[in-house]
Amino acid sequence: MVRRWSPDGVPAPIAAYNHLAAVPEGHELVVFAGQVGTLPDGTLAGPDAEAQARQALRNIEGLLGSLGAGPGNLVKLFTLVAGAEHLPGLRTALGETLARWFPDGDVPPNTLAVVAGLARPEIVVEIEAMAAVPAR
């Protein structure tokens, strides 16, 4: 499985994540396009960051499932939020989902960026992912 760690001698992560992750032998790296909080019918799960982040993470989980994988296969996340005012809702959704996915605390690296805007004004959260899946 994916190995994640934060080495000694490096400042501790400032949130729930590890600094490093490695793809195990016999696996290939799969890069996911940024996922937003859209439901299967194409509508947004809600106007707020919490609802959109929860749905974006469900979409990532569905994509992982389509590969015969799960959250344990995640190597890296990259999270974008359109404005600092949306951080509390994002942190709630992300924190609760990652705690469920990684109850042992072995969370993949995650970069969080606050940006001026995303593809459409109503989209306030976008999450990219990378996963290691067994080579086919």
What does this structure look like?
With 136 residues, the chain is α+β, with helices and mostly antiparallel strands. The chain has one domain: 60s Ribosomal Protein L30, Chain: A, CATH 3.30.1330.40. The protein contains 2 helices and 6 strands. Strands 3-6-4-5 form a 4-stranded mixed β-sheet. The chain has a two-stranded antiparallel ribbon with strand order 1-2. Helix 1 runs parallel beside helix 2. The protein starts with a strand and ends with a strand.
Overall form: globular
What's the CATH C level? Alpha Beta
Number of strands: 6
Mean pLDDT: 97
Main structural class: alpha+beta
- Topology order in helix (H) and strand (E) letters: EEEHEHEE
Low-confidence stretches: none
What CATH calls the topology is 60s Ribosomal Protein L30, Chain: A
The main sheet orders its strands as: 3-6-4-5
> Which percent bin holds the helix content?
10-25%
Tally of individual helices: 2
How do you describe this structure in short?
By secondary structure, the protein is of the alpha+beta class. The chain has helices at 49-66, 87-101; strands at 3-5, 20-22, 27-35, 74-82, 110-115, 125-134.
What are its keywords?
single chain; 136 residues; alpha+beta; 60s Ribosomal Protein L30, Chain: A; four-stranded mixed β-sheet; two-stranded antiparallel sheet; 2 helices; 6 strands; globular
